[in-house]
Amino acid sequence: MTKIALLSSVSLMSIVLCCLGCSAPKVSSSSQPLVSAKSTRSPAVIEAEVERLLSLMTLEEKGSLVHANGKFSVAAIERLGIHETWLSDGPHGVREEISRHSWDAAGWTSDYSTYLPPLTTVAASWDRNMAQLHGNVLGSEARHRGKDFILGPGVNLARLPLYGRNFEYFGEDPYLTGKLAVEEVKAIQRNDVAATVKHYALNTQELNRIGVDAKPDERTLREIYLPAFEMTVKEGGALSLMGGYNQVRGTNANQSRHLVMDILKGEWGFKGILMTDWNVDINTFDAAMNGLDLEMGTDVSEYSQYFLAEPLLAMIRDGKIPESVLDDKVRRMLRVQLTMGMMDKQRLSGQRNTEEHQQAAKKIAQEGIVLLKNDDSILPLDKSKVRNLLVLGPNVDRPHGAGGGSSTVKALYEVTPLQGLKNALGENVNITFMRTRKSAAILPIDGIFVETRHWTGTPAWNTEFYSSADRTQRLSFDTAPDSAYKAKAGKTEFVTMSADVRPKSTGVHTFKISALGKLQLRIDGEVVFSHTGTSKKIVRHNVNLSQGQVYRVDILYDGDQEFLLGWDTPGNIFSSRDDVIAAAKKADTVIYVGGLSHGDDREAIDRTDMKLPNDQDSVIETLLAVKPSTLVVMIAGSAVEMPWAAKAKALLWSSYGGMEAGNALSDVLFGVVNPSGKLPITLPHKLEDTPAIALNDYNAIENLYPEGVFMGYRWFEEKNIEPLFPFGFGLSYTTFKYSNLRLSTNALKKGDTLTVTVDVTNTGKVAGSEVVQLYIGDVAASVPRPAKELKGFDKAFLLPGQTKTLAFTVNQRDLAFWDVNSNDWLAEEGDFDVLIGASVADVRLAKRFSYNQ
After folding, report:
1. What's the DSSP call for residue 98?
2. H helix or E strand, kind and range, residue 423
3. pLDDT at 6 over 90
4. Is residue 684 reached through a cis peptide bond, with omega within 30 degrees of 0 on the bond before it?
5. 207, 310, 634, 636: which is deepest, by most CB within 10 A?
């Protein structure tokens, strides 16, 4: 389907708003400007109405507002005019409609949304305007779908490159994350939707995410993992926070008195609601007494059995919990409902799938692409000189919207890099798309074929464990990310893995099996293959399958080792390495688009290593040897090892780019857009260079955070480890000069602020944008401190020869560390350095000032 045809469907999709028999929020097809007069929602009026409504409620009605009555809803109190509250997953698009009481898709045809680039792309833009644009679209589309809360943005930090949800967040730095998240929150809430900042706090891995216990020291907690949450509360006015799955110092984060009562609702004065994620490890008394306000998902048969449902009311009736505790939760819920206009006839109705929103997605994707290498000025490409283009790589023609977990988006369309290149080059250029791999490779069946879903939304294989080979007594149930399995060493297991699989072509599908043990393959209940393997030798079996038909695939395994099920689909889609080499030699331009996918970056599972999957390194090495000018594009939500990077002359880094990703990438490749993105994470040479791995603090039981405040780039500088590419790094098709650094004072006094100004000039031949970064260094401190800490950034667009003056404000908090003795922020007297750079490793200008009490 052409782009024109796709866009022409927007108007149709935006008016087909029937619910097809599902119980769901009512939506309006009308649209309004994203500005609303809210004089009737003044704090005084809202607080008075909160008290009035609360005074009229029965105990049971109060209780109905602090727990879910559906997968994504909270009950109405119709007699008081309190509407049902509807929530939706984000944070880069409104999730497809889910059935009211199950994780099944509701089956709507009217729940397509704009698939925005994930927040790691926003972070790579280093642009507050992009965060505002992102939040504005997200909030508007949530309202158009009848949602009251959008579950985002996420502000957890990329402590570990293996973390499955890094792509959902803003990178590794608390200041960059916080400042961008503040703009995102404000923009969402301007659309009469409550932003839900998540996951509070210390949710830094998916490995045993519910059970792992985070135990950082207080200074590390305050300086690294809480500032972004604090900024969204104090500066962004966030109406809602979502607690983490993980434990914090022995109890679930949602019921941690220190996190919630002492800090969030105490020190920060948070007046909104704290809600749970789905299926968290809480209990009634601790959750109620320690500040949890809304329980959204618990694995019980009836909503009345949620911890904050009938069990809470019973404890209140028995005098074990004061009713005032419940009253506080209800006040918060009512306050949020009134603030976002749920009882307001003038409430905004939002817009969805508009051309404006699609162009916003494209703009964010463009701004978030990072140029890492451009030796010999290979880029931008000259369209007039591209006549025979070879494109390779697993991400050339792979969509990413419907993956990753709860952040999955039912995109109206998605432009892949291949389609973007075709759109840019037209019909006069010969574009060859090839796939290659090791000839004997066996890979798990790709998730794009798997219909079965983990409850988070990711493709999954249901995994059942039995006591014996007859499979009459089931011991346990789990899910697996793909069709591969390793048994626990030394123990024979009886395992059945099952999934609904939908082929994308008709014909012979060659199933490839490697098994150590006994394996049986069934399709729709019929045994099609049996095998007992004593080696990892690959065996094959052909089966005729039809495109679009769903087949139940069961793998029955008895053994104490491992198995792997893969397949080759009809047609020879993989070219030999010799054919690829010949095509590369013939082509005038070669582009490799690889990296990760949401088979790797996904909720509920961490990666097991930092390597590129599926023989990509070997393919890239081959291409660079044959065609040194090969352009390499990495698409990933987390760091990957790139052992061939020194050989690549042109290297681009992009996170998942949303529905316009292919067009955005082509615009950068051909110079329509000058890349201006900067890395929001450090790209290490190898996994062992990162602190959690180097200090052996990645496990399923507890994380002690022994690196302390030296996380991310702070660690690399402290340990003098040179990364592959440093935090804040990114090139341009032009050049910039920094000059004339000035400080408003050389002696800052307590309570005052310091203004830092610097001139930046475009010294090249094309227009472009530069991100200027301000770091602070404490010259001599009483505690170990990072050499540099980001405390300011700004992005300036400059025409050739143009100069702009950028100004930054430094305050006392920017100089401070968390003092464990006074239990407060402390800025010590002494000298501090202002460091202005193009990255953390590229400081261009510096000045010193003193701070005195």
Report:
1. B
2. helix 417-425
3. no
4. no
5. 634
Helical (H) or strand (E) element with 260: none
Residue 213's nearest CA partner among 791, 699, 650 is: 699
Distances (CA, A) of 154 to 185, 196, 203, 242: 10, 8, 10, 9
Total number of domains in the chain: 4
The residue assigned the tokens 């069961």 is 554
From the list 277, 446, 568, 689, the catalytic residue is 277
277 noted as active-site residue: yes
Contact 369, 124 (CB under 8 A): yes
Taking the C-alpha atoms of residue 541 and residue 543, their distance in angstroms, rounded to an integer, is 7
Question: 813 phi and psi, to 5 degrees?
Answer: -65, -35
Pair (229, 324) in one structural domain: yes
Do the bridges between strand 85-89 and strand 149-151 make them parallel or antiparallel, or are there none, so unpaired? parallel
- Rounded to 5 degrees, what angle do the CA atoms 567, 572, 576 make? 100
Please give the distance of CA 565 from its chain centroid, rounded to a whole number: 29
Mode of pairing for the β-strands spanning 194-200 and 240-243: parallel
Nearest to 627 by CA among 591, 599, 676, 657: 591
User: How does the average pLDDT of the chain come out, rounded?
Assistant: 93
Using alpha carbons, list the distances in angstroms from residue 24 to 97, 143, 171, 337: 8, 13, 35, 18
Total residues found in the chain within this entry: 853
Where in the sequence is the domain holding 526, given as residue range(s)?
447-568
Residue 33 has pLDDT above 70, yes or no: no
In-domain check, residue 608: yes
Helix, strand or coil, per DSSP, at residue 296: coil
Residue 37: pLDDT over 60: no
Indicate the pTM of the whole model: 0.93
Question: Highest-confidence range of 26-30, 31-35, 399-403, by mean pLDDT?
Answer: 399-403
Closest CA to 347 of 192, 147, 190, 149: 192
- Token pair, residue 752, equals 């005052």
| Residue 384 and residue 318 in one domain | no
What is the distance, to the nearest Å, from the Cα of residue 113 to the centroid of all Cα atoms in its chain?
Answer: 17
With respect to residue 683, please indicate whether it lies within any of the assigned structural domains.
no
CATH no. for residue 493? 2.60.120.260
Are residues 820 and 763 part of one domain?
yes
